[in-house]
Every structure is written in C-alpha cells, then in structure tokens.
Amino acid sequence: MNFRIIKTLFIKDFTLFFKNRFIAVITVLGLVFYLFAYFFLPKTVDEVMEIGVYAPVMPPIIERIQNEGLKIETYKIEKDLKEAVSKGKVVAGLVFPADIMEKLKKGEKPIVKTYLSAELEPEIKSAISIFVNELFFIQAGYTLAIEVIEETIGPDMVGKQVSPGKRIIPLLVFFLLITETFGLANLISEEIEKRTIQALLVTPTRIQDIFIAKGLTGLILALSQALLFLVIVGELKNQPLLILITLLLGCIIVTGISFLIGSVARDMMSVLAWGVIAFIVLLVPSINILLPGAIVTNWVKILPTYYLTESIHRVMNFGYSWQNIWQNLLILLVYSLGILSVGVYILKRRYQ
Amino acid sequence: MSLKRILILLGKELIHSSKNFLFIWVVLAPILISLLVSLVFGTLFSEKPKLGVFDQGTSQIVEMLKKLDSLTVKKYESVAGLKVAVEKGVVDLGMVLPPDFDNQVKTGVKTRVSVYVWGESLAKNRIMVGIIIASRVRELSGLENPVIVESITIGEGEAIPWNDRLFPLVVLMAVFLGGLFLPASSIIGEKVKGTIQAIIVTPTSLIDVLFAKGLMGILVSLLMGIIILFLNQAFGAHPWLLILLLFLGGIMAVIIGMISGTFVKDFTTLFAIWKSCGILLFFPAFMYMFPKIPAWLGWFFPTYYLIQPIVELTQKGGGWLDIRTDVFFLIGIDLLILGLLVFLIKVKKPITG
Question: What is the pLDDT of residue B177?
C-alpha cells in the first residue's frame, strides 16, 4: 500500500467527480433542495384541538373536559368567537344558549350553534357535532357501562411528538448518501470503459491502492455531505459519535453499492438505470419512518437501509443511546463489510 | 411523406427506445410520483384518526363506526394482528370487542374492552376516537342525543385536499415527461451518432423521421396520461373529452420536444433547458397548489389551456360547455407552435445544414 499513490488517485477521483456537470449539479443542488425540504416541513406537531366557546352561563362540563388533546377557549362576545373561527385560531366555535342547563334538566333538547370554517375538513366538521353531544351526555351524568383496559404500545409521545420536519431527516440523509453512489459508480464505469485502469496497473500502482482511493473518495464525499446537512439542521447535538458511526457504516454500504454498479454499468445512462433501481429498493425503510404505518410488512428488515435510517431516527428523535441500538449497529456493520467485500470482489474481477 | 416509412420508423423507435433508460424513467416517474403523492398527502397530512377493531363477536358498532366519515376503521382478525397494526402506527387505537358486547351495552351490564394505544398517536386523535366510540355506544344502547347541533359555515373557501391540489402537476408531468423528452432525446441521440443524416439521404424525408418520433411521443404521453387518470380514479363522466385533452396536450409536448431536440446539441444542454424553462410549463400546476395565486396569471402559460379543462372535468364536474373555449385555445396553441417548428426547420435547417 502506497500512501502517496493513494493520495494522488484520491485527488484525481475527487476532481473527476466534480468535472461531470450532471453529478456536480445534483450533488450541490441536492443538498440545497434537501435543506429546503427540511425547513419547509413543520417543526412542531399540533396535537391539541382548540375549540372556542361562547356561553352566557358556562356549563360546568367545560371546566372538566380540558385535557392534553383538547383546549377550550372561552369568549365573552359571540362576535369574537366568530372572528376566531374565521381566522383559524380555533377549530370550531360553540354557542351555548343561556338556558341550556335548565332545558337539559327539563329533558328538552337545547340548540347549540356551531361555527365552522368553510375550509375545515369534512371529517372534522362531523366530529365536532359528535363532540358537542358527547359533552352533554357527560354533563347529564350518562356514564358508559364499559371498563376500558388501556395499554400504550411503544414510547408514549404525547407532548413530545416527532414532527414531519424531524421524521424526514433519515430520508434526506439516505438521499444524500445514495446520490454519491451515482457519482462514484460513474467514475468506476468510465475507468473501465476508457481502459484507464489498465494504464494505471502498468505503473507501480497496485489494485489495492485503487480500491482504497476509490473507497475513500466515496466515503468522504458521502459522509461530508451528510454531516454538513446534519450540522446545518442542528441534529448533531445529541449523541454525535453514535450518529457519526452510523453514518460511516452507511457510507461504507453506499461505497460497496457504487463498486457493484460501477462494475456492471457501461455509461452514465446505465449507471443511472442501475442506480435508480438500487435507490428505489433501499428507499423503502425511510418511507416507513416518514409515514408510519405506510408499509406494514417485516421484509423491510432485510434491507441494510432499515438499520441505517431506523438508528438515525431513534437516536435523533427518541434520544436512544448505545444500549438501545447496538444490535442495529452490529447488523449494519455486517451488512457494510459484506456489501463492500462483494463489491470489491466483483469489481476486481471486472478490472482483471 | 410516406405512411409506410413512418410506420417502419415508428416500429424502430418503439423497439430501440423501450430499451433506453430514459424511456423506462418517463414511464415509471409519473406513476411513482402519483403513488407517492397519494401516499404522502393522503396519509402524512390527513387529520383523520384511525381505529383498528378486533371483534370477538358480531357487534353492530363496527358497522356504525364505519359509516362515519370522521374516522377510518380497519377490522382485524386477531389480537396479535391488531397489536402489530398499533405498534407500526397503521392505526391510532386498537379496540378488542368482547363476544357479547352489544347485549351487554343494551342491558347495562358492565363490559370490559381492551384498548391498545399507539405511543406516537396524537393526543387529539386519541380523544376524538374515544368520543366517537362513546357516542356510538350510546346510540347502540338507545340513548337519544341531548342537544341539537346547528352548524353555521363561516367564509366561502373550501378544504381542498393536497391530493387534489397536486393532481394537475402529476398530470402535466405524465404528459410532458414522455411527450417532450422522448422525441427530444431521440433526435439528439441520432444527431450525435450521425444516423439522422444517414437516413435523410435515403428516400426517407426529415418529415417522415420527425413524424415517427412525434407519433411515439404522443402515444407514450397519451398512455401515461390515461394511466395517471386511472390511478387517481379521475375519469369521471367524460372519459372521451379527457382523452381528447390528453391527446392535444401530447401534441403540444411533442412539438416542444421536437423544437428542443432539433436545436439542442447534447443531453446536458437539454437537461439544463428543462431545469431552467420547466417552470414555464409547470407554473399553472402551482396555481392549483396555492389557490391564492391569481387565476388570470395562468392565461399567459400554454399548459393552462390543457390543465384547466382537465381540472374542470375531473374535480369540478364540468362538461363540454365549460371547457370548449380552453380546448379551442389549446388547438390554436398546438397549431401555432407546429407552424413555428415547420418554419424553424425550413428556414434554419438545423439538421440538414
């Protein structure tokens, strides 16, 4: 192993990488676009339903009903309530007549006026009507003869929900890593097709030097972008070493995939064709993080990106530590070494 | 112009282009985007809580809950299946109904119900599901609603789901990716390899070559448009009008693609033009995403006359009378740019020199 040769090859690969306008553009634009996507998505989760109430005589249930998911705002003037609804400050505005309690006691049905914004989703409109009736069932003391045995599955996130902005981070990190596959695979396929690799091998350069230089190029390009992205979005504060190791293993995987694609592709178009197939398959686990419940099957667990994105998600959004995700890291390590070895083996055969 | 030669060239185009990555991509991309849009915006931004039920008996309450549009109800065949669904966030809450639930409720006998809550479920969803279940249980036990709810709607807008807002963009992508890129890339590819010059020294004319490439673009564009409308269940009452619109849109895309293909020297420039000028084609789609953009701005963009009638037919229940002016404008634009293409080829002679 000759460090001087490796350094020269690394600089050559790095320069060639950015000489391809398409790859250079998608690398830089990609980072900008991912940052835009991150900042565009909401950073908080509105898990409280706010309902406005105007009542000359406030029914006692209004005080009792407030809890974590429901906030009742009271208004002294009906006009203010209407304005709050039209400005979207509250989901709905309820107007209780002054004699509501008397009518309920007499067994009569009072009329409750409900102001709803025209832009409110139909499902919420119908839920409000159910809510109002339920409110007065409770007020009237109609308890249900049901004993509810409740069990929360998974960590209870009420009050500390993971926002869409945070859920998308593993997906964007995956995008950043996989994009580098295209660039590195293109470099490799070009070297094979133009036969520069044979030219290199007649010099004192050994095949190991080429692999190390190529591996380093892929690793540094992918890792630097992912780290830069995480620094900008401020997600490297919690367990930075753990995230760094996870990313490093992810980078080894994409480098191995680049070797595989580079060895079968003949030009830029076929790099894209093979790359897109790898991209779509490996993307699936991060979709499941962004949209929980979208993909229910367990087969996603055979994909290495499941352990990559799941670890990033759990560490960043749930505060997991080494003890919680060491199995994930171990599996990721096995995958990364396996994919890299297969990539090196196939590429070596192609070179020879 | 020879029909026989055009058909031979079209056959050649179909055989060779279908092996090309770009062909696969223009076919796959609109479908993937459409599926992703419905998945992301039908799920991520949906406010509707989801309830899973495993009914050990035959309770009426499941059907009563299913009839409501304020929550989504899914039935499961076992407690284990229900728990997996809750664990993965498929449903916010999972409820196990005992065998004789309805009778126990009706007779006022205290009954036990197991409820599994997904830890990441929103607090408001948990509350709403709880309230909705309670209201149906009361209905089942024969209790009448204690109050009359009178709903008053404030404002004139309406809730437009993001699926609907993004639909015009997906349709435009389906029509323009295939319609524009296939003829453009095919012409550029032949120019680079020099095969187009070789063909036109034979009895095959440049018009025959361009016609064959255009025809393939229109066929793919039309097919993709139909697939996207089908995937979005948007054919509605006027399928033939929609197919006519897709056909006219395909012609527009193909002519723009042919103008690009004949005047652009390589793929990199084509992609650069696509990235910088794409906004001119897709701007009308952004108007539907953000309804606050004044509608009259769309009149200045040619694709407005394609997408406006499609939206009118698929989302607003319109008919021929509502769209005829736009259709005539669309035909006018197609003829105008076709004239421009013919003029540019005859005067500038970009391929024959």
Answer: 85
**Record: contact B159-A120, CB cut-off 8 A:** yes
- Of A258-262, B197-201, B259-263, the poorest mean pLDDT is in B197-201
Which one-letter amino acid corresponds to residue A312? I
The rounded distance, in Å, linking the Cα atoms of A257 and A177 is 11
Question: Are B126 and A47 a contacting pair, CB within 8 Å?
Answer: no
**Which two tokens mark B90?**
């498929």
Integer Cα distance of B286 and B40 in angstroms: 18
**A22: which chain B residues are within 8 Å (Cβ-Cβ)?**
268, 271
As beta bridge partners, residue A159 has none
Minimum Cα–Cα distance from B44: chain A residue: A291
Least confident piece of the model among A55-64, A77-86, A301-310? A55-64
Kindly state the DSSP code that residue A235 receives in the 8-state scheme.
-
For residue B312, pLDDT beyond 80: yes
Backbone angles phi, psi at B220, to 5 degrees: -65, -45
- Per CB-CB distance under 8 Å, the chain A contacts of B158 are 118-119
Q: Say whether pLDDT at B45 is over 70.
A: no
Question: What is the complex's ipTM, to 2 decimals?
Answer: 0.77
Do A145 and B44 lie within an 8 Å CB cutoff? no
CB–CB contacts below 8 A, A to B: 226
Question: What are the φ/ψ torsions at residue B153 (nearest 5 degrees)?
Answer: -90, 130
The residue of chain B with its CA nearest to that of A268 is B21
pTM: 0.71
- The H or E element spanning position B152 is strand B148-154
Cβ distance B154 to A154 less than 8 Å, yes or no, reads no
Q: Is the CA virtual torsion A125, A127, A131, A132 positive or negative?
A: positive
Beta strands in chain A (DSSP E): 49-54, 70-75, 92-95, 111-117, 146-153
pLDDT given for residue A138 in this prediction: 83
Residue among A127, A145, A161 minimizing CB distance to B110: A145
A312 pLDDT above the threshold of 90: yes
- Provide the residue type at A89 as one letter: K
pLDDT digits (tens, 9 = 90+) for A180-198: 787 788 788 878 877 887 7
Tokens read off for A226: 């992912």
